């Protein structure tokens, strides 16, 4: 087995483990589930470092850890949407990994920041859509009387997903701008700091 494959597998395992640890240390927890935490950052980091496939694998591994440690079961399809699809889809951030690497390699921090925001948004939006659909189908009974279920699910899930997206994007911009080596980009000595 090549060293790079061992390194990749190790990094995926470590980031999935770090993600579940972050999930156990939320900044805020919503009443019926969902929380503002740093748990998406390690998945996004793998997606930006290695690409789409590896990001999806890391998200799937996080989903498996979520099921083992924090499962809230209503229905098998709810588990599929709220865990497997939702957390795996965070890896979609890897769609822009080449653009992030190229921007950082060229010293274009503004472009890198824009692509980091875009990638983080793509992964967060995909996860949000899964929770939104599950909220409509499986958690509609929690909606206050007279409130449309779709509006309730939209507001409830945005309540923790929007801050999670913003925090993830800001921290990843700071992290990758100051340490581009995290995505396999070596600083060019000729670039201004």
TrEMBL record:
InterPro entries: Thia_Transptr_ThiT (IPR012651)
Signal sequence annotation: none
Gene3D superfamilies, sorted: 1.10.1760.20
Keyword Metal-binding (UniProt): no
Keywords: Membrane, Transmembrane, Transmembrane helix
Regions that span the bilayer: 12-29, 80-100, 112-139, 159-183
Pfam families given in the database record: Thia_YuaJ (PF09515)
Protein name in UniProt: Energy-coupled thiamine transporter ThiT
